[in-house]
Amino acid sequence: MSPGPGLEPWTAASTTAATAHDRTLNPYTISAALCVVLLSFREGACKKSHILKLNTTGKFALNIVDNLVVVHHQSSQTSLIFDIKLQEPDCAVNTHQPVLPARSIHPYRIPLSGPAAVPTQPPVPCQLYSSSWSVFQPDIIISASEGYLWYLQVKLPPTVHLLQDKGKLMDFLLRRRDCKMVIISVCSQVLDCQEKGSLPVVATVFDKLNQVYKEYLEAEQSYTAAMESGPSRGAAAQKRPVRTQAVIDQSDMYTHVLSSFTERKDVSHKFIIAVLMEYIRSLNQYQITVQHYLYELVIKTLVQNNLFYMLHQFLQYHVLSDSKPLACLLLSLESTYPPAHQLSLDMLKRLSTANDEIVEVLLSKQQVLGALRFIRSVGGHDNVSARKFLDAARQTGDQMLFYTVFRSFQQRNQRLRGNPSFNPGEHCEEHVVHFKQLFGEQALMKPSTV
Hints:
44% helix
């Protein structure tokens, strides 16, 4: 927005402009009780669209700051903030109340300095809401008497305590420029409350965050698709979406909110788990793929509180989506929760892209025949490394197990090449020697069906 003409100091009727795309926002008249906002189109026609209720009388001046209309009231030395996007328009002309209680501009002290022989004079307070002020658009205030020019800014952190409705607060913050850390502080604040009925508030906050998150993901996906369709059509069609601070993704929530929240000792583990599942529920509602580290956080919390029955149910009913990292985490829990081993294998089987991982898991547990049966069931027996299985069978110290596995691969060689011998490239010479030592040369040449 470009600075427009200055306003007369403290008039009862003023004009300002803020350009937005193809139309101009004009607070046309400020009367004793209300401010009328007009939409001015390029063709020159104006349409009354909003009325700002000032609820007071006297002289006013006006700025546009961070998509907010700020109305300064001279006699009370306070400013009113209006967010006309905070409510959905329901008629041709919409009436708005201040979104926040009236507040004064933060005091400012003007530094003064005298001659070198005179000690430095202390700063003196700036006279706020002075009759010598001139207001320029969008966010400039000039004090003619003091010779200072200021840019007006909105401090977001205090709004956290001024707006009690957390849903409305999130709507307000999500439209501001420097909102990220303030939003994160709000998330931490709502998680401090464990009272009955606080979980719906948490759900509302998560849903509002993920709605913006989803819109950004869709815009990014649309842009990527346009680029892939060809530069001639894609580049001209749209610009790359800008990721604003309002986009709070899963990594942000995990790093700044959820990971520290799960470590708190003063919070009920039931509430912690409910919050984690509520965030996952919200992601699923907006069809956002849940990252595995969020599931890992849920599992870690369940294990720390010995809630293995709940973990089993979450996995059984696919509340936690299957993934290789999650399966590996379950494997690491076997010493604490033995059924986790089978739960991990079941998950890997459902993935259908983790056959190698399943074989490695079974071999690491010396379940060599189980690994052999599995690789046959998925049709991978002809391509699997014989040495890997023979190594694992030999490490068990079970001679009959080694005999069975060795015979199995001899039969594979016979079927594939018409000869039971191993190729040099399979590097099984030491196992052939070991077989001869255990069962003799004659047994080596008589492979049987396994």
